[in-house]
């Protein structure tokens, strides 16, 4: 069960990343941004896109929430979207934290700005 959750999270993050930042969707993304304020904001927002990716995954893969809770398909789609948005946002925030806070080091281990 835990493997299913991790797999769901990584698939959701991957799909969201490709849609929001991927070069393969750059032309369609730019067209959408130029032609619709609503969808333009939606497709550039990790949390927003993650929600819709979760809905899509729930419909295509049969749902995640209904594997853990005795609920119908419609609430399962909703909770899958919410879960996917949250986990995608958390993974993205964690990656951004490490990207922004990394220390640039020289080969010998000293910080690049520091003279030795």
Pairing-aware structural class of the strands and helices?
mainly alpha
User: What is the total number of structural domains?
Assistant: 1
Provide the gyration radius in Å: 18 Å
Oligomer: single chain
Q: Percent range for helical residues? A: over 70%
Q: Count the helices. How many? A: 6
Mean pLDDT: 89
Summarize the biggest pleated sheet. Answer: none
> What proportion strand?
under 5%
What ranges have pLDDT less than 50 throughout 5 or more consecutive residues?
A: none
| Strand count | 0
For the termini, the CA-CA separation is 52 Å
- Apparent shape: flat
User: What is the H-and-E element order?
Assistant: HHHHHH
Quick structural gist:
The chain has 116 residues and is an all-alpha fold.
């Amino acid at each position: 069960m835990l493997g299913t959750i991790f797999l769901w999270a990584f698939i959701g993050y991957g799909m969201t990343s490709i849609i929001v930042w991927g070069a393969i969707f750059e032309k369609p993304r730019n067209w959408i941004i130029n032609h619709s304020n609503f969808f333009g904001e939606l497709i550039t927002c990790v949390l927003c896109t993650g929600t819709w990716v979760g809905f899509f995954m729930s419909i295509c893969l049969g749902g995640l929430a209904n594997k853990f809770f005795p609920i119908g398909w419609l609430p399962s789609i909703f909770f899958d979207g919410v879960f996917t948005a949250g986990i995608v946002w958390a993974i993205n925030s964690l990656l951004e934290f490490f990207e922004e806070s990394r220390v640039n080091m020289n080969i010998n281990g000293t910080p690049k700005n520091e003279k030795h």
